[in-house]
## 1
Amino acid sequence: MQSQLPIYPDQASNFAPQVDSLMTFMILVSAFFTVVITAAIIYFFFKYRRKSQNEIGAPIHGDMRLEVTWIVLPFLLSMVMFGWGAVVYVDFRQPPSDSLDIYVVGKQWMWKAQQPNGRKEINELHVPVGRDIKLILASEDVIHDFYVPAFRVKMDVVPGHYNTLWFRPTKPGRYHFFCSQYCGTNHAVMGGWVTVMEPSDYASWLSSSAEAADADPILAGEKLFSEKSCSTCHVGDGSGRAPSLNGVYGGKVRLADGSTVTADDSYIRESLMLPNAKIVAGFQPLMPSYQGQLTEDQILSLITYIKSLQSQPVPVTGAGVVPAGKR
Amino acid sequence: MATTTTAPAYTMPRDHYLNASYGIRSWLLTTDHKRIAWLYLIAVTFFFSVGGIFAALIRIHLLSPNGLLVSPETYNKLFTMHGVAMVFFFLIPSIPAVLGNFLIPLMIGAKDVAFPKINLLSWYVYITGGCFVLYSFASGGLDTGWTFYTPLSSVYSNSAVAPAVIGIFINGFSSILTGINFVVTIHTMRAPGMTWFRLPLFVWAQYATSIIFILGTPVIAITLLLAGLERIFHLGFFNPAMGGDPILFQHLFWFYSHPAVYIMILPAMGVVSEIIPTFARKPIFGYTFIAASSIAIAVIGFFVWAHHLFLTGQSTYSALAFSLLSYLVAIPSAVKVFNWTATLYKGSISYDTPMLYALGFIGLFLIGGLTGLFLACLGLDIHIHDTYFVIAHFHYIMVGGAIMGYLGGLHYWWPKITGKLYPEFLARVAAVTLFIGFNLTFGPQFLLGFMGMPRRYHNYPPEFQVLNVLSTAGASILAIGYLLPMIYFTWSVRYGKAAGPNPWPATGLEWTTASPPPTENFEVTPVVDWEPYDYKNRPDLGLVAPVTPLAPAHGDD
């Protein structure tokens, strides 16, 4: 059965054609060298086979021109491989700014995804075609890896910090995703399906769920924010002992040591876990660590809530964000 | 072609290292490097068999998409124990500790290694480490993957991790001691006239390998010790819940384990560099380039480790630097391949078994090396990292390269080691069987990887089945290829024909003494006054007439 052996996996993202052209180039270069060397060995093997018992070979010791050629030529070719590969990779590691952000949490042995409106899925991921998608990856336990062969992308999911993975689906359909970093007993079944939908279908899918409304992650985050007493110090009008979080997300924050840092998901996560790692200029290191007190889901809810404060007015004093770098 | 010589029937020498003394004590307490090589030969063959049985079970299990044989837990233990047994207890010691131990003193014209007692100690250290690991296998097994990634290994795994990391920690000292022994031996014990650039290329390769042993092994020892301490005493080195960094473990692990790949392949390259000139009967092409490339690989090999971490979230700049450096380490390997091929030009090539292994090695190493370029390519690694493509790539290097080299070397030096010939026809059949079986086993895995099958899966989607069945079919051919030499080598020790001192003939110093050699290796300390791999000026080999001073030259040197 032909369909049993699809040598060529689907090409369903912006990266798939890029990775495949790179693959083709590498295969051609490798095939060239493999054929040349193998042909030379086979030719010499028969051409110069021993003809009499006492025959010896010609006393050739080397040739400097040949040595230089076969050092320089492979070097140049390998630099092309390096450069081309680097171009694709650098693009892959820099998500576009206006992406659709979806949180994905891996744990032994399942995947949980959370859409921007709070809709949750398990071992499923729905995305609209043609839109830049950014997955923010977190792990509850060991290292996992989110891998979609049809998109030609993967990224490790490492406990303790966030990795991001972006792609732009180009073809509607259902595609396998796998866990690609060995994570224990049921590693092989820790996978699922990505469903790429037309944008209109995606929009109606997104709003169709009953749970979406009552699981609004912003509301959940706001609730946590007061339950965990964050709101005691982080007061919106800048009058608290800690910086106001209004407008912080995505902005620049000036630190006590004079440097600045972009307030992205990783920064916020780090501030929760290791609050003394980066102290905002003008504030005291008073915050306790929340290490071990929040689940990955709760951290994500808090981040979503802080993200929702992006549009709130930034106070003149007591702001966390650098006013000049306003977004 | 039949074997080259219709030689006179040799008889075994009257006194040699094998019959110098008898009894179990004379072996277990020996300080003769040749007997220690035997101790290692038996031990590594044992671990190879253990690892091989695990591999066979893995391939049988993967015949069906749902898994045919074992539970997920057991499957995970099988591939972990396969990796640990093969990497740490077979591949790393195989050529250095068996062939290197036997040959280095003989090749440089020495009576023994510099520290014979330490040499015996390294074997006992290896066996002690091996016992801990076997204890781990027997008492619950090990399911962390041979890479021991944290926090899986240090916190979450329920298997016998602690004895395994202790075993590998102990075993590391065996490598370090062997490395020091070889470096000192090569520096201080060369016979008169054996200059650095007259050294056999096998010795150069062993020297480069020993450098990695000495510099790299302490790092893996420390790394696994930290993981063990984290597991036993709950110290937070790598566990993020305690403020540790799981990626730090990967940096430390690969700082050793990538150079360890060169520990496995460099000695095999050394073997091939010996075999090819012997069976082409001409000097090796570009001696200095091959020697220097061994050192270059050993040195640059220490600066490429983070190419295993392109997708862990490490900085883009770091990824760029490590990709570039990984391409640089490929150049010296390419230089070797080109030089070996050029050596065949205008040779007098025979089809003896070691040559079949050496040529097979070039072909398989070529594919293994080139596919390494795919993985070093940042853009491509996004797709093929942690898939079967990686599995296929490193088996081409470690099995196609290192084991073909090891078997080629065993066949080449077997007459020297035992004084006996093995059945040539059967040996050629085995070599060809191995080559075919190997390609059928691991070739389809490149495709599986490109199609997206992740590694370490106990079951898989049905679209991957055809290629998995092909791979298992290949593995059964491969198994025959491994069993044959085990059988006829064992047979030949007792029943093989006496080989004579130099059956091929070859130019190295080890071939100027009896087979098997006497305990003190040489009757008198040899003096070297010839260049390596020179057949033309070696009338003592019986191939060319002695040069008469007045002979008119019609040649054009």
Note: Chain B has one domain: 24-541.
## 2
Amino acid sequence: MVVIAMGEAAPAVTYWAERVEQRSDDGGSMNLAEVINGHDADTVALIDGDDSVTYGALRGRVAAMQADLNGRGVGVDTSVALVTGNDVAFVVASLAVLGLGGVVMPLNPGSPTSELARKLSVAEPIMALVGNAGRLHLGDPAVGTQTVDLIEMLVDATSAQESADGPTDVLVVDRDPDDPAFYMATSGVSGAAKVAVLSHHNLGWIHEALSQVDPPLTAADVVLGSLPFTHIFGLNVVMLATLQVGGTIVLQQRFDAEESLRLVQRHSVTTLTGAPPMWKRWLEADVPDDSMASVRWASSGAAALPIELFEGVRDRFGIEIAQGYGLTETSPVVTLGRGAPVRPTSVGKVLPGVEVALVDESGTPVDFGDEGEIVVRSPGVFVGYLHDQETTDAVISDDGWLWTGDVGIFDEDGYLYLVDRIKDIVIVSGFNVYPAEVENVLIQHPGVTGVIVTGAADETTGETVVAHVSGTATREQLEALAAEHLSRYKRPTQYSFLDELPIAANGKPIRRALR
Amino acid sequence: MAASAPASASATASFRFELAPDLPGADRVSKYVFGAIRTLTSKLWDFRIEGRENVPLEGPAIITPNHLSFCDSVFVPAALPRRVWAIGKGEYMDSWKTKHIFPAMGMIPVDRSGGDAAQAALDTAADVLDQGRLFMIYPEGTRSRSGDLHKGRTGAARLAIRCNAPIVPTGHVGTVDVQPPDSFVMKPGKPVTVRFGAPMWAHEFGDPEDPRTLRRFTDAVMFEIAELSGQRYVDSYAGKSAETPDTPTPAPEQTPVTPRRPSVVGPHGGVGSRPTRPAMRPVAAGEAGQPIGVPRGRRVPASAEA
């Protein structure tokens, strides 16, 4: 008797989204600065504290700042660094530079000077516009780039706009869609500063695709802008996408959970986007339970959202957080939870127009129901890393697929679930062990404050699992916990107890330092 | 649970529970046939059984042995303390040689030609388990030619979740010497050992709604099977090209130089043009065409070098 297995007869399938061909109907030129044009001049675009800026006023300030910037030598193809928080200055300056045909390089104003200098040295912008949040860096020769006081420029632009009679037109230079719009410094943990080049079309295409999601963002939406605009998620999904539909952004320069929820209530915010640490603080915030009553859409990105957090927010505030997935290199949306019923542990479904495949090392799509490396092809896939063809060639194939380095799996309905980073996988006796799974078990011990799992060479099993732990838990306690929750080959065979774990500034573990 | 053996399948091979409320092989004659097989295996071979106490004596359970030889399907059932059922090719019902003996041994024929054969098999298996019986399935899907234990298919895990049944990992040694591949006779006198591991439950491996749970559970079962059979585990499916693990996989051929990003470099719509909402659809790998290109400068993941 030969027995056939269920899986054997199943066809080899993986999930893809259908390609969407791009139509060319505007002569092949575009400029992202167009996002603020065409909206009602009296609609409020930005709310920053007590200051409300209408689209009309915003256009006036952008135009006034363009005159100023142009006088300082900013024009087509010049790049300008922007070192400021989520404020009006950020929005005005970035649109002014884009409109002039320049390239914007947003940088985290909270970074140490040495890190700023390192990133600036890759792109060599002609100047760095420094706002309130980055004042420390103003005039510091260690930055290595000429710094300009952005607040002063904004004050001048505002008074120019207020004294002007009638609306002013924003100067919008025609750009080739593939021309760079933003230089995004990526928080690579590999050590080397990488700067991703994103074109006008990369970012603009994401807005088109998002408009296909039901329900789409509309001019009636009020969006909380507390995710940093210096990061692609905050920049494109929160700031630019909201402006593009003519909605309102409530700016929050420095994240404060109670304060942001007061803003949500005061301005009837409809759309709330955050990263898991922000959601954690919102959940723990000392505010009334109906603080999120106006919120119609809540999402989370940048890292995995723990299920306890999802359930906590749902039980307390009555909203379901939808996760999304994306990378700087994909502008950033690959999958999102919007437009379909939320599955708490999934990062959602593929954005219309994005192709996603799960593949093995040779690029062959894996069988359905199997884990594979996520590869993405879409018009949002970036141009490449600035002055770094080698790294670019390591992530984009000749046929346009971006290899993300993330391992994922689809369920039967096309929801994507993330597993781990492919380079972090530990192979024990031929079996894949995902450090994230082991870490999630060990961190549950109350005596553990942090844990990083890596692999080490082993004579009999090839590799073995090593747990690097900080906290007061003992090896015996952790072994008991692992025995309860993990298959034998996933249990750490070596424990190292450290006072402090190597964690990068962006919160990601530096595994390299532990191997 | 509704039995949904393939209704469209040819009449000779389809099996319907509505027509035959009892499972094939549950009749008295089959019981003697099976008893005879059990006696024969212990007389003709040096047959050892370990861990039989791990097989539940009542209630449903899924037996998942490694698969090396045609005769695995004789030795594993013979080692069990209860009757076991499994899915077999519908074609066996067309031959006089097999049409009586195989069902007597617990084979449920499922037609592989019609419609969704995998779903029909799954439904049939679920019916067996829902009756509180033992069901056997080879998680590797087919025999391992290399002798290594291959990556497990997730069907058994799906069944375990659907029917709330435990999986009993099973490993055996020696069957390939009794009947090597492509051999039609079973050589007597050889030693054969079948080992059963402790039952494993899906709910210990995470949320059953999450697709990651299926793989996690399946891998854990395969690990136990490897421990019981002493085989080396390789993380690729049996029957695929990568089955000869000692031969390094040839480097994928670089396609001739094409425009670097054809999907992006082409004509642009710019802001304003609207893509139509595409439907998600499963695409067979073959239909999708060639494998996806590997970045030319791609570095092998650190862990894969080990």
Note: Residues 28-239 of chain B form a domain with the Glycerol-3-phosphate (1)-acyltransferase fold (CATH 3.40.1130.10).
## 3
Amino acid sequence: MPDLTFELRRNDYSLSDDEESVRQGFAEFFAKECPATRVRAAEPLGHDESLWHELIGLGAVSMAVPEAAGGDGATLVDLALVAEEFGRAVAPAPLVEAMVGARLLARCGGAQTSLAGVVDGSRLVTLALRPTSAGDRQLVPAAAVAPAVLALDGDDLVLVTSGAPGPHVANQGTTPLAWWTPDAGDRVVLATGVAAQRAYATALAEWKTLTAAALVGLADEAKRLGAEFTKTRMTMGVPVGSLQGVSHPLADVEIQVSGARNLVRKAAWFLEHEPAARPELVPMAFSYAARAATLATRVGLHVQGGFGFTLESDVTLYFRRAKGWSALIGDPRRELLAVGDLLAAQTKD
Amino acid sequence: MDFSVVELDDDLAAFVAEVRDFLDTYVTEEVHDEERRTGGSFNLRLHKALAAKGWIVPRWPVHKGGAGLDRVRERILELEFERVDAPSITLGTTRLVLSAVEKYAAPDLAAELLPKVAAGDVRFCLGYTEPDGGSDIAAARTRAVRDGDEWVVNGQKIFTTGAQNCQYTFLITRTDPELPKHKGLTMFLMPLDAPGVEIGPIRTVGGERTNVVYYSDVRIADRNRLGPVNGGWAVLRGPLDEEHFGGGADGGMSDLGIGTSWARMQGRAVAAAVRWAAAARPDGTRPIDDPLVRARLGEAATDVEGAIATPGPMHRVRVSEVLLGGAADLVDLIGPEALLPHGADGCVADGLFDYHHRFAQGTAIYGGTTEVFRNIIAQHVLGLPRPVYPASKVLTAAGPTRKDRG
């Protein structure tokens, strides 16, 4: 059967000057303000209130909100670049949840009062990553620091606000996780039916894309920590990094991480500009980035030998969060099934 | 960042139609049959027809034998050529060597050859690898010894793919074994019809034909030398870097590295696997209704997308490993029918899965193995210390000795 369709797309992954300056601005901020000592100091909760307010001050949440809703209207590509730098620092702040929560509120027009507080930092809103039902509890990211949770409850998109955030639950990722139930506070319905489903699905796609970007930054830094160690650590008279048993696994990490970075940025671009054209890119990017983070932290730790395994080594901060962030949404392999479902749906056209 | 659609105006749409019409005419089932039989990756009628269109060197101006195409049209040509799986190895090596000929050939040689290349009458292959050298091509032992205005060449090369289709091979020789390994090399355009050149076919599990080429007291004119005596490494690096890293960014019309066609090949296999999975079996069920099948197809599609997005030398490794791993996985997914070749009773997708699985193995070796590229990534991207090997910089005892020179 001849292929009668023809489509030629540009294949340009380069950053514009504006995008590069956004990336660089946040990279410099995190490098200066969020060294590993600050990450450690925020453990085990995984939240640094003053760092979070510095980020709010930089406009990290308002940039996520469209100008029409009172924000600075950055693109999802910009947000992905910020999330990547955030991940590189494993910064103890609920950046991705706050960005996605603010955008979801902005999408549900009637929630302007909630939104103002989110943008100025007086009110932290997070997102339940699984649809919920009465009495059913789930682990929600940032719920140990956010008193308000957005959730899909049956047919309704709801904002549930409590007097205080839930109690922190100890977790390997040292993130501000808390158990949460939908009947835990005051419930405001933001949307119902198809509108609710759509708004929530978009929020999940954005959460996956931005978390994938954070995982890329995390993976890249874990790789760098491992590679730097091998440049000076000697064995049998040569640097260990000159041995192919060490350098080739690090090269494999570079292969996975560099591809994940571009794939995530591409997914962000499509989500921003043509969300209906390539919906499979989001689950692709998430699973690819999750794989990159798992591989990079494993190798980054391993190539530092016994030292890499000690709490003293910074790569352990990355190792913990690789799963601490990626496991929240469920098995990344489910994302591959989601890609397959989209492929199957195309065969019915 | 830009992944937008290139708008097809009437002119561009007409060009697409022209390309498709051309490929329908010249890349026929007979061409594919010949390819399966001979593995030559070349068809003379197609090559001459390309030349008549100016499409051997599509960017060159018409008066030089090109078609004066812009980059968008050249890209369309590349992608369409690939989509119909047109034989392409000899075309590719010809274009690769052409840039070195333009840059380094003596003016009279260039004036003679460039129009013939554009006309499809002169084609080039790569004479790099030696039987005991593998990817370490700077260890070349094939000797060229000066004799007046001529050089006398002795030695052998292996994996000179397309030698049977070409007039010249881009030959790396050792001209001074006393100098450090990379400094005693000189490049020549070796005429393959010169007395003393003997081409022996080698068939691969991938179905391709490659060659061993023996050089016994072959005399060639000094005018066939490209670049300075003992300056061959720099001459070779041009095409080699092109082969290793691919072109730069040009408005999103280029791939991110070399070998992307292998990832797109796997992309076509995934599409074929989806079609296989969506077809009903005799009992009415479809493989694609099984979530395991969908998850595996989703993984295969994800790997293709990731490979295409991977930049630089990392790209080279990932695209071939995605084809290697992906082709094997698709055989597992589909089952024994996937091992049936084209024409066999019950073969799937015209034997594509059988062919890809075999073909994939070579892609991690061509143009330097994936291990060579991991070394490049380690040293040039990660900045890791260069490994120290006895023969990194010098010729070892296995190399030519004083006695060999006599």
Note: Residues 7 and 40 of chain A are 50 Å apart (CA to CA).
## 4
Amino acid sequence: MPGYANPGFDTLALHAGAAPDPATGARAVPIHLTTSFVFESSEHAASLFNMERSGHVYSRISNPTNAVLEERVAALEGGSGAIATASGQAALHLAIATIAGAGSHVVASSALYGGSHNLLHYTLSRFGIATSFVKPGDFAAWRAAIRPETKLLFGETLGNPGLDVLDIPTVAAIAHENSLPLLVDSTFTTPWLMQPFEHGADLLYHSATKFLSGHGTVIGGVLVDSGRFDWNAATARSGRFTELTRPYEGFHDMVFSEESTVGAFLLRARREGLRDFGASMSPHTAWLILQGIETLPLRMARHVENARKVVAFLAGHDAVASVGYPELESHPDHALAKRLLPRGCGSVFSFDLRGSREQGRAFIEALKLFSHLANVGDCRSLVIHPASTTHFRMDDAALARAGIGPGTIRLSIGLEDPDDLLDDLKRALKVAAKA
Amino acid sequence: MKLAVEGPGGRRQAYAYTGGKPFDPGLPAIVFVHGAMHDHSVWTLLARWFAHHGHAVLAPDLPGHGQSAGAPLESAEALADWLLGLLDAAGVDEAVFVGHSMGSLIALEAASRAPARAQHLVMVGTAYPMAVSQALLDAGEHDPFAAIDSVNALSFSSLSGKPSYPGPGMWLHGANRTLMRRLQMAQRDANLFLTDFRTCDAYRNGLEAAGRVACPTTVVLGARDQMTAPKQAAAIAAALRARIVTLASGHSLMSEAPDALLAALREALTSRAPAPTS
């Protein structure tokens, strides 16, 4: 058909949600560092509060700079809208708290970032939200864990620490058979590598601190709604989502699913969760993340290109026992990665040194370009040795149960000249061998 | 609000959004009629405003769209009869009729079939005839999701509709595309896209209907509308002796220019525009 297409990814990364500022003509997105916005009249104020008009009232709930970021990430993900949050953790909390409360239950992949596991296993359980953890590839376990009070299924597109690839089409189908939404953490893949909504996920979030920002400067999160999940139908079948389909006394008796067929979840998340929990993003942070997103397509291509070179180098090195990267045939999810991640598997992965904890430590300390710190997704290459840092209290047996060996090293490959990265690794591996 | 409405297939359940307040037929009524591949949710900001400012509001889902039961109806005339049946079911004798795009043709036709029941006719993002290209109809028949993408790309005048709809943070292109796709997928026995766009294309009674309309009419157009370009509304506006308001917007005026559209509606309903004379 000789029709018109929606804009492409690279165009959206630059333009979605932004236009020249009507007040000043500024072409770049202005930073609206203001707590609040002047009402035109008392009637205008009342109609904004009552959601008879769209607009900004107070920057905890919405802000023009943040709105550009929200629209842009939603556009890149193929979503209906988004909410910027203070961190990725805040985005996860907001997603769960919008539809779950005391007595609710979540089924989550066991291959999660430690912070997410902590939130689900320890913290939310104190507030009455229980979580069952299942291996991401064990579909029978996903099904078996679902209870009448389950509110969502949750996993990471690429799981921690072994880069388990979440089979989103299959897990989404399990969720939908049970009238449940699937939430995914898409931080490691970014929309450039995978758009989870196209595979059936309903909600997703990013730690925008990582690749979206891309420069290791700010902490932030973005929660995105596909708009595809039919909360009314799910409530009719299961009675589960009355938070969105029945009048909410906490906001003008609003029935969110009546107000917006495709934005009900985000309306409640913003009008309740952002309002009451208050984990909002600074407009300055939003602006910096927008700067990062403008070059996301270029950066991700280079991240993946560099990662492949490093993976190939390490996989062929005598001092390396194994490399956990799904593009390698040795990875258990290699076939799934080829199907779901044709552009690549990102630039964060782990490998195992042959040797002791001491040799792992020596390797880290010999690196010059790789920065030893607790982050990923920076334009600079990063490294961490879990056995001597994040998991140093564990003995070797406990480490093994967590999928971590004494010589496990996690790398986040940046945008440097790849030959320099290989030189750095080569030299450090030699130092480690002598340690 | 759920209502039982008479239609071609008998009485069926219909859904109408009432603006976040209980419906009171004793108040001045205003009915908002959505366009092709849409549902009531395109009107919720305006509907809430009018419901909280002294009006009884009905923003129905047309049959086959959203929460109203039944197959989609296949002509503006049939939809106009259904709309008048909805007013009967709600106990509304007369109302302001506001329609967008395909909904504007339905509102026009309803106002002509029951001139005594229409207090004011507002046609938003309209054209007459509302011709649809054969290429789009063919695409709608064979690949409706590609056709949806094409319509979506033409529905907005920019990649940045501020302050967005129904609130900040919504990506208008994505929300509109998702709504259309959901409505299309919900119809297992009908091609909703094809039905709606054929309804627009086939309507030929506009000038005759305009001659029977007895109430004042306002036509609200988007200066950058690429679906129903402003000049395509000139003939019907002239026939209706309508007041024309042009806003800085594309076709999706409710989401691209909600405040300006509200101002236009308030102005229209408070002005003393003369009714057309034949």
Note: Residues 9-292 of chain A form a domain with the Aspartate Aminotransferase; domain 2 fold (CATH 3.40.640.10).
